[in-house]
Structures are given as structure tokens and as C-alpha cells.
Amino acid sequence: MTIDEIMRKAPVIPVIVIDDVAHAQPLARALVAGGLNVLEVTLRTPAALEAIREMRQVEGAIVGAGTVTNQRELSDALEAGSGFIVSPGLTEALGKAAIRAEVPFLPGIANAGDIMRGLDLGLDRFKFFPAVAAGGLPALKALAAPFGQCRFCPTGGIGPESAAEWLAFDPVLCVGGSWVAPKGAPDEATVERIAREARTLRP
Ligand SMILES: O=C(O)C(=O)C[C@H](O)[C@H](O)COP(=O)(O)O
Fold it and tell me: In which pathway does it act (predicted)?
């Protein structure tokens, strides 16, 4: 699968922080049942890599690693079986390593120079991060204009009230958000309902 195909699977990519690996499978099951099958597990907690291994066993889940900031974390994420890699930013070293590994890669950008660094590497699918703090939809519209070939997954500060507006902008293939995956022990019925609502956000 390409990163473009992954971005088109669902309108929202849950940005997941797992503190207890026992929460991984129930959370993934609930999200997939609600129609959100692309799952980004952030490497922010010691349980993250084990959580990726667990979630991969959930039928229909496409599980990737987020918060991958260097080559060491990239290797760890790949070893855990990550199906895609998300980074809050883009360094040349990480970009080249991800391309070499032939793993779908979604690096973060927040300005024109970041996008140009990505294009130099052959990348044109980006996370716009931190989406709201970096200027919100007006900033992304201005940035996307000179780079017509690029597509984006805005993430950071987006919630159920604002996601539809972002998704209505053509270059936005999906948005990332933590609101669909609240921290702690998941109440599966609630998570499934929130996921189902998120699923309908694309106009
Ligand atoms: O961990 C990373 O790699 C990040 O890029 C940060 C996350 O994407 C945002 O923290 C999610 O933002 P919220 O939906 O506003 O909570």
C-alpha cells in the first residue's frame, strides 16, 4: 500500500497514546468496528511498540507508528511491524531512511521550506503539523497553492467540530486527531460510537 492509499482509507486517523498494552487490542477493535481502520500509535510511551504488535492482530487494522523522529525509532517501529510511519517533522536523514525501507511515510511539514525538502526527496504526502497552531486552514490553503501535487493530513488541535471544514478542502485526504482515542481503558461502545461519527465527517 502507498501512503496515498492509506490516507484515503478513512477521513480520520486516530492518534493513539497507549500507557497500558492491555488497552491496545480493545481500542483497535472498537476503532475498526466504527470504521476507522488506519491507526497511528505514537512512540511516546514505553508500551507503544508492544501496542503496535498487539493491534496488528486485529482484523482490518492498518497500524502505523507516530512520533518517529529519527532512524533508531524508525528501525524499532519497523521491527514491531508498523505498516506506515508518521513523523512530526522531516529531516533528510529520516526521509532517506524511510524511503530506503520502502515503508509508507507521512512526514510533518509546517512551512514551504519543509515541503520543498520533502519534494527534493520525492515525497508529496505530508502531515500538516501542528495544524491549528501553525495557522489553521488559512495557512494550509496558502501553503498548498504553490504545491498543487501535494496532499495533506492536518493534525494537531483538530476535533469533531472542526474536522469537516478541513476535510472539505480538496488537498486534505484525512485529518489526524486524538479525540477518537481517549486515553486510558477504552469503553469499547463509546469509542466505536465516536469513530462512527468521525467516519461520517467527510462531506
Ligand atoms: O505525536 C506526534 O507525533 C504528533 O504529531 C502529535 C499528535 O499528532 C498530536 O498531538 C495530535 O493532536 P491532537 O489531536 O490535538 O491531540
Answer: Carbohydrate acid metabolism; 2-dehydro-3-deoxy-D-gluconate degradation; D-glyceraldehyde 3-phosphate and pyruvate from 2-dehydro-3-deoxy-D-gluconate: step 2/2
Range of the domain at 120: 3-199
User: Which among 40, 54, 73, 192 is annotated as catalytic?
Assistant: 40
ipTM of the complex: 0.92
Q: What is the CATH number of the domain that holds 18?
A: 3.20.20.70
Residues 6 or more apart from 200 whose CB is under 8 A from it? none
Along the 203 residues of the chain, how does pLDDT read in single tens digits?
999 999 999 999 999 999 999 999 999 999 999 999 999 999 999 999 999 999 999 999 999 999 999 999 999 999 999 999 999 999 999 999 999 999 999 999 999 999 999 999 999 999 999 999 999 999 999 999 999 999 999 999 999 999 999 999 999 999 999 999 999 999 999 999 999 999 999 86
Question: Which of 40, 155, 175, 201 has most ligand 1 atoms within 8 Å of its beta carbon, as the pocket-test mutant?
Answer: 155
Angle between helices 48-55 and 71-79 (to 10 degrees): 40
* Ligand 1 pocket residue status of 88, Cβ below 6 Å: yes
C-alpha distances in Å from residue 92, one per residue of 43, 98, 99, 130: 20, 10, 10, 20
Cβ(37) – ligand 1 distance below 6 Å? no
